[in-house]
Amino acid sequence: FSGRARQMEQALALAGETGDALRVLALDGIPGVGKTALAVHFAHRVAARFPDGQLFVDLRGFGSGGSPRDPGEVLCEFLEALGVRRWRVPASTESRAALFRSVLADRKVLVVLDNALDLKQIRPLLPGSPLCMVVVTSRRRLSGLAAAHGARLVGLDVPAPAEAAESFLRRLGPARADARAGVAEDIVERCGRLPLALAVAAA
């Protein structure tokens, strides 16, 4: 992972806030721009602040091998991961969401909701405790999440040319010494400076 210093600073600042409200960070941007990479890197950076665990799910909101995940099913998986026996998990999504909030009421847990479709899919998966934090990634700007839950919206654009070139050269590793002058810059531009495309090209 490299770059995204400004966005990482924003995320870390939010993680360090204290108050009575749930902290929610929503990252948005086009496919391949590095939303998931930033979310996962941030989760590793702040793991010590959430000693009761981290929960991650790909909500498959936008074409990642299946239909969008049902929040009720995700809640069942989350509750089991948190130690709730399957027979204690209620049948309805609403009841599962209430139990999820209760279980997390006094725990410090980071929840990463990757590739979210919309607020309707996200809302049941939000803890109620300010001890927790949620990171959401989506191709859409989740303005409703900001209006209803005070989410901090952070948009990701393609990296600057120099930042993209440095990321590409780092991925090349020992092979970077063989890269001719100007070749890396040409590859970076042909990949549209998209981090995912650059990772594939470097591989």
Break the fold down into its secondary structure elements and pairings:
Blueprint: H1 5-15, E1 23-28, H2 35-45, E2 54-58, H3 71-81, H4 93-103, E3 110-114, H5 119-122, E4 133-138, H6 143-149, E5 152-155, H7 161-172, H8 183-190, H9 195-202
Outline:
With 203 residues, the protein is α/β, with parallel strands linked by helices. 41% of the residues lie in helices and 13% in strands.
Key descriptive features of the protein:
203 residues; alpha/beta
Give an overview of the whole structure.
The chain is an alpha/beta fold and 203 residues long. 41% of the residues lie in helices and 13% in strands. It has helices spanning 5-15, 35-45, 71-81, 93-103, 119-122, 143-149, 161-172, 183-190, 195-202; strands spanning 23-28, 54-58, 110-114, 133-138, 152-155. Helix 5 (119-122) links the parallel strand 3 (110-114) and strand 4 (133-138). Helix 7 packs across helix 8 (183-190) and helix 7 runs parallel beside helix 9 (195-202). The chain is elongated, with a radius of gyration of 19 Å. The mean pLDDT is 91.
Number of strands: 5
Helical stretch count?
9
Mean pLDDT: 91
Structure class: alpha/beta
Order of neighbouring strands in the sheet with most strands: 2-3-4-1-5
Taking all Cα atoms into account, the compactness measure Rg is 19 Å
Please outline the major beta sheet: 5 strands, parallel
Strand % is 5-15%
Shape: elongated
Helix share of residues? 40-55%
Residue runs with pLDDT of under 50 for 5 or more positions: none
